[in-house]
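Input (structure):
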C-alpha cells in the first residue's frame, strides 16, 4: 500500500492510499492531473495544479513541480530537483 497526498478544498493536503496509480483516476481527473504511461513519482514529490507529465517521465525523491508545469515524454529529473 502506498500513500499520496492530494489537496482537498477546506481540508488541505489529504492522504489517499493506493496500490496502483490507476486507482486514483477519479481524484486526478478532479484536479486536472494527467500522468503518462510508466510515470514514476518519488517520495515527497509535489505536483502543482494542471501539471502534465509525459509517458515514461521519472521524477526523483523530493521533486517539486509548480502549477501548470508540463514535462515532455521521456523527461527525467534527478533527486531533489525543484522547478518553479
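Output (sequence):
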Amino acid at each position: 500500500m502506498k500513500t499520496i497526498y492530494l489537496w482537498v478544498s477546506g481540508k488541505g493536503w489529504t492522504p489517499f492510499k493506493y496500490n496502483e496509480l490507476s486507482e486514483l483516476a477519479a481524484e486526478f481527473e478532479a484536479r486536472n492531473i494527467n500522468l503518462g504511461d510508466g510515470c514514476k513519482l518519488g517520495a515527497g514529490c509535489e505536483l502543482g495544479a494542471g501539471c502534465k507529465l509525459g509517458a515514461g517521465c521519472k521524477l526523483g525523491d523530493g521533486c517539486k513541480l509548480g502549477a501548470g508545469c508540463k514535462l515532455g515524454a521521456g523527461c527525467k529529473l534527478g533527486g531533489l530537483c525543484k522547478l518553479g
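Notes: The longest helix spans residues 25-30. The first strand starts at residue 2 and ends at 8.
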